[in-house]
Structures are given as structure tokens and as C-alpha cells.
Amino acid sequence: MSRREGSLDPQADSSVSPLPHLEAKIRQTHSLARLLTKYAEQLLQEYVQHQGDPFGLPGFSPPRLPVAGLSAPAPGHAGLPVPEQLQLDAGALAALPPLLEVVRRRQAELNPRAPRLLRRLEDAARQARALGAAVEAVLAALGAEPRGPRLEPAAAFAAGVFPAKVLGLRVCGLYSEWVSRTEADLSQLVPGGPV
Questions:
Q1: Residues in the chain where the model's pLDDT stays below 50
Q2: Whether the Cβ atoms of residue 121 and residue 103 lie closer than 8 Å to each other
Q3: Cα–Cα distance between 49 and 28 in angstroms, integer?
Q4: What is the pLDDT of residues 101-158, one digit of tens each?
Q5: Where are the alpha helices (H) located in the chain, listed in sequence order?
Q6: For residue 154, what is the DSSP state?
Q7: Which residues contact 26 (CB under 8 A, 6 or more apart)?
Q8: Which of 55, 104, 136, 192 lies 20 to 30 A from 149 at CA?
């Protein structure tokens, strides 16, 4: 194909740089993370609203139960190189959908008349997958190593209504924390963003 016909192969035209494509991908992924941060906060509020007392009471501080296969971002996360931060983000985002699905199924039993909450939980699982895939694409464009095999978190959940509600709250909180952390990590790559 002649240059005049317009080659789609960036290798054929040395003036075409992959940098604008990478910047666009980073901006797009950052915008998605920023939007999902707002959605995650709304999900958390809606979840609390449907759990009844003591969840919505001022001063209620539920125990921070461990969630199999996922933990909160570590305090040292921000000090890691950006590709490592994004690899951790991608791993957490991959672990979240099955956990959010377990929460949705349990909430369908406990709150069958809360269709908006159930829809938000379903949407959150889908959004975590989409953001995780976008972060993986940014990592690939940066030439970063893949983060390794995906581990499916254990789907076992606490027995009993109150522990299930607390664990569901923890999963929704982790979703919010990881989406927010991903947004902050990506902001370091956005041209004109923090250094």
C-alpha cells in the first residue's frame, strides 16, 4: 500500500507514534476509574441503607472481616513503581466480580425487594471486570509483565445473617477502595497529572 493510500501499519510510517494512543488509553481508563469511584460510593451507601440496624447508625463500626482472596490496598502501595501498582490493581479488580456475585446472591435472599441494590451489585461486578481489562490493556501498552495467573477467590461466605451482611459490607468497601486506588494510580500516568 502506498503512503498516499494511507497505511494503517504504524511501523510503515515512522512519523506515527504509539504515544498518542497510549495517552488516550490512559485517559480513557482513568476516566472510567473516576466514574466507577462515584458508582462504588453509591453502591456502598445503598448497601448500608438496606441492611437495617445497626448498619446505618452513627458510630457503628463493623469488624473488618478478612475476605478470602482479597485484601485492602497495602499502606506501601503508593510507594511502588506505577506498573507494580497497576498490576496489584488489576489483580484485585479480577478478584472482585465473583465476590460481588456472592454478595448479590445473598442479598437476593435477604433483600428480595431491593432490585436497585441487586442491579448495582451486578453492575459493580461487570464494571470491575471492565476496569480490570482496561488496566491490563494499559499495562500491556506500557510493556509491563503480566501479573501472573488469576486466582479465583474462595466463594465461601459467613454463615448467619449478620456475618453475611458484615462480609457483604466488607466486599462493597473493598470494591470502593480498589476502584479509588486504581483511579489514583492511573492519575500518575495522565499527562499533566501528579508526578
A1: 1-16, 149
A2: yes
A3: 32
A4: 999 999 999 999 999 999 999 999 999 999 999 999 999 999 987 665 455 555 556 6
A5: 19-49, 82-110, 115-142, 161-187
A6: P
A7: 138, 186, 189, 190
A8: 104
- 100: closest CA among 58, 130, 75? 130
The Cα–Cα gap between 127 and 193 comes to 24
- Alpha-carbon gap, residue 124 to 101, rounded angstroms: 9
- Point out which residues pair with 67 in neighbouring strands: 70
Q: How many CB atoms lie within 10 A of CB 143?
A: 7
Measured CA to CA, the distance from residue 136 to residue 146 in angstroms comes to: 8
b/e sequence 9-46, b meaning 16+ C-beta within 10 Å: eeeeeeeeeeeeeeeebbeebbebbbebbebbeebbeb
Nearest to 68 by CA among 164, 157, 154: 154
Secondary structure class of 33 (helix, strand, coil): helix
State the pTM of this model. Answer: 0.85
Q: How many residues does the chain have?
A: 195
